[in-house]
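Case study: Putative transposase for insertion sequence element.
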Amino acid sequence: MGAIEACRTPRLGGHVDACDDCGRTRISYNSCRNRHCPKCQGAARKEWVDARVADLLPVPYFHVVFTLPPGIAEIAFHNKAVVYALLMRIAAQTLQAVAADPKRLGAEIGIVAVLHTWGQAMTHHPHVHCVVPGGGLSPGRSRWVACRPGFFLPVRVLSRLFRRLFLTALADVFAHGELRFSNELSHLNDAEAFTRHLARARRVEWVVYSKPPFGGPDQVLAYLGRYTHRVAIANSRIVEVDDGHVAFRWKDYRGNGRDREKIMRLDPREFIRRFLLHVLPAGFHRMRHFGFLANSHRRDRIGLCRQLLDQPSPAGGQQQAGKSQHRQSYECPDCRRPMHRTGITVAPVSPPRPSSFWCDTS
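Here is what the predicted structure looks like once written out:
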């Protein structure tokens, strides 16, 4: 919260731009660059998406969502680092295992996984969005195996395997003493109570949702741009703020059509509490790559996929061009001429009040 409060204020310093023609000056204060700040994700998102252009293949892309049921989500809230990592790993493992089955696809697939922990009302709702190319490499990596048109993998099979693998892994980390519980979940520190809790989770259906394939590479990039660097709520959704409440737009997916769009009003303290539910553990990576898109061998495997698909490599310099455009000077709002940096402003040595500012860009 200290980072967000200080973002783009004199507390972090800034720089002065001036127009050579009309003499107008403007002070631009520095950003906090915290990954949870709604104002600081634009540049990071653009740079990340530009880098993903080189990974796109000329195949359909699918969007698969894995969601934890409420009884397991509350365990995740008490053990964020352990269970969130488990959620991402097991979701990818489920997709890879079903895709590798010769009865399904029989191929090594690639996955971009993005963790979200919120619903539309900013309540705790951990789930993973997976963007997956519609096909993969054959076991000998000698050919490309395409999925059926408009269909990737059966969601019921994914759901059952996801539930089994996740509960097995969760029981294992509990046995190794990696889970801690307090307050209303303190009874789960007992092994028998924890086992009963998992047994109840086995009796409910776990939600795995596969959306229709994207229309093309542009849609894939647009989706990644929206989801990869998203925070619990964007400034654009907030419609009114005063001392008594914060009002914001949200979608109630139980409604139909226009009835879905609603306004929620919360006490400011409750709004802040909900926002802070979604602060990730320090150093936790909420975007991960698996299969032939794993960071350790992505470049080589993408090159092999292109070769098997008879697709030329993308033209070089795309990423650098995007970065250089980001460094261009501002345009003067009065005369539309370029503004140039003429100086810096220094942050006050003693801020007016104590700050817990800490920059976490992981």
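For the exam, be able to explain this: Confidence is low (pLDDT under 50) at residues 316-328, 354-362.
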